[in-house]
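Recap from last week: sequence in, structure out.
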Amino acid sequence: MASEVRARMVDGAVQLLAQKGLQATSFTEVLDLTGAPRGSVYHHFPGGKDQLVGEAVGQAGDRALELLDRVDGAAAEEVAAFFIGMWRTLLVRSDFGAGCAVAAVTVATDSLELLDRAASVFRTWRHRLAQLLEKGGVDPHHAPGAAVLLIASCEGAVVLSRAERSMEPFDLASWQLQTWIGSIAGGT
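Predicted structure tokens:
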């Protein structure tokens, strides 16, 4: 039961970070969203909000990696399309109301510990995407840069689409990314 409450609170924090950002993600908001008892806050997170946010960032990162594992062994074009599709799904399902929880923390925190946690997630995503792209046909020298470009472009396209409440910026970036990945993948 206690671990279930803790897990709900971390899940809630991920959702709130993606929707409202770091400043609006308070313990009160997390409790309201998850229905967790008020007394569970410092029981489960004695390190306070930074501990909860750090765990939420880690969980958001792990979820993306679990999804990426679904395309292990696929052609680079499919890997790129899947990664782009993850972000498209987030935008569509949230009606432009959610973005990346990791990016939300990165742009808003003063905590070096939280920045380090976010950096670790982004590094892990970059490494995993590069592996998948290389396995899918991208030259090993180009795969790390292609991974960075995919992440940075998707993150930026999500921000633009949320601001404009339109899929147009995302679709334009998506088409360019997929075309470019196809050109460097050697026709796999």
